[in-house]
Amino acid sequence: MSKAVCFMTKNFGKYDVKSIGSYMAIGGFNALKKAVNMTGEEIASTLATAKIKGRGGAGYDMGKKWSQAKSVIADNKVVVCNADEGEPCTFKDRTLIEHDPFNLIEGMIIAGYTVDAQNGYIYLREEYSHLRPLILDAIKQAKTYGFLGENILGKGFNYNIHLYSGAGAYVCGEGTALVESIEGKSGRPRMKPPFIKQCGLYNLPTCVNNVESLSLVSSILLDDEKKYLTYGTEGSVGTKLVSVGGNVKNPGVFEIPFGVTVRDIVYGLAGGIVDDNEIKLIQFGGASGKIATKSILDTPYTYEDLRKDGVGVGSGAILVVDERTSVIDFLRTTQEFFSHESCGQCTPCREGNRHIKLLLKKVAESTHTTADLASMRKIAKIMAMSSLCGLGETAQSALVSAMKNFEEAFQIK
Questions:
Q1: Mean pLDDT (whole number) for 99-111
Q2: What is the distance between the alpha carbons of residues 274 and 255, in angstroms, rounded to a whole number?
């Protein structure tokens, strides 16, 4: 039996994604009409009651974030939608844009109204350039119908949305590197403080959310019966989009209630393993996530249960790797990715990734020593503690968890 649900994905296949009229016919923009008759504090409180954690990976309380953004006193503020979905095996945001673009636009408008912003910016990853016409057309139609521009819905609310494209840099998924890129600079993280909520894009107070977070907003505001709260567990309320890929028969994006097991996802929704091979490892949350053995299959997919078992929800990616791939080969491929994507700005990340890459080569060739293993652990710890942004902080998550869970792969011969 399918464990999938349709809460935030309820509009999929229900309307013509190129027609705002079609979207409105199924209740589109009713959430915005409700929102403009609420205060920003009331909207933020509604999200807080739903206990929504940000879906970009950090898991920060969304209601709290909007409340904090609202409380910043400034004449001009901005909202940024992070659609730079660069985490490997993560493709849920692409699916949301493809199947429900007007819902994303509506969520961004509500965000702007809530925090008193005048402009919203969608930062789209370079590889999603094929979605630019769809988004631009949705923005244009929303403006034609009076949902963007001046005096929206007669409430004196002025707000516009702008679309920017990245150039393919993974690091621009980090908030400050993203705003640097929009400003036309090299996409490199900023020193903090000041934090982005006080001084972000164009030095203005900035509220950043990812596509999935913003796509939840309309459904939550219209959920008068509190159906969302019936999904999930006490510690992980609601639903989550997961991207399942790798050696599974049915890779794809699924909306699940928190609390289903990893086995339900991998062998149920994703159809099991190709050629019925055995699982070697499962990585959670993208390339920056930790890896586990197949013993995690019966763990409930919740923030607290996954954390207890040494991994995390992260971006919602679940990468399944079967026995045909060795742990070391997997780690070397992951390390190639981070060595390539490091912006080089800070020494721990730039040099740490380079040295880990060389040391993993020695492990693959069985020429490593006990000192080499100690060096890898030390470098990984320094990177996690000292790197300027999340890339360097999490680049060795897979390595550290592999050294714990797959000790045999690092044995000295």
A1: 98
A2: 22
